[in-house]
Specification:
Order of helices and strands: EHHEEEEEEEEEEEHH
CATH superfamily: Glucose Permease (Domain IIA)
Strand content: 25-35%
CATH architecture: Distorted Sandwich
Domain M23ase beta-sheet core: 87-184
Number of domains: 1
Helix content: 10-25%
InterPro entries: Cell_wall_metabolism_enzyme, Dup_hybrid_motif, M23ase_b-sheet_dom
CATH topology: Glucose Permease (Domain IIA)
Distance between the termini: 20 Å
Shape: globular
Organism: Algoriphagus chordae
Number of strands: 12
Protein name: Peptidase M23-like protein
Largest sheet: 8 strands, mixed
Radius of gyration: 16 Å
GO molecular function, one term: metalloendopeptidase activity
Amino acid sequence: MNWNEIDFFPVMGEKLTAENTSKLDFSPSNPDLEILDLADTAAFDEYVTHQLKSSGSKYGVGGYLEQRAIYRRSAVFATAEADFRNIHLGIDIWTAAGAPIFAPMDGRVHNLQDNIGFGNYGATIILEHELFGKTLYSLYGHLFLSDLAELEIGQEVKTGELIAHVGPFPENGDWPPHLHFQLIWDLMENVGDFPGVCSQREVEKYQAICPDPNLILRSELL
């Protein structure tokens, strides 16, 4: 599979370059997270906004397979086996609410769902694509709730078509505004939802299912 042979449309409408984007660290090695009240979404949002402004960036990106400290803010990430899910399976693009999101390639709407709950995805769109003779799904989480009303299951989407917008909190799952972008080979019977993080013991399993989204984003920072 040669991903570089495909001309993907930029998911945010423009490439994520060193000029407009900075990398954000939400791993345990970031000392700021020890004093930040992550359960206070407004305070969390103020922190993210400051990080972007101080670097002169429109976007902040991270962290495929990054071990993260920020998931302690929500019980959503505790598994039934009680081992904590903190390994990120997508790439987050932190930016202003309302930022447009575009289809990177032709496909169709596989599912739409509002995954409600503090720390969840909020409004979520999953597209289905044909790539390398296989079915690939792309997931877009933390959207405007109104975006779900603009699409229908089975609807075809074209490369570069506007499909959604980065949603505001609290309707986006109560996160600072960002897009969770994830690629998935096998939905494993999930409908309208798919794990965006996994526990350490599940990394090998999910890494095989969820390829690096930067194969499409192609950001030089990732």
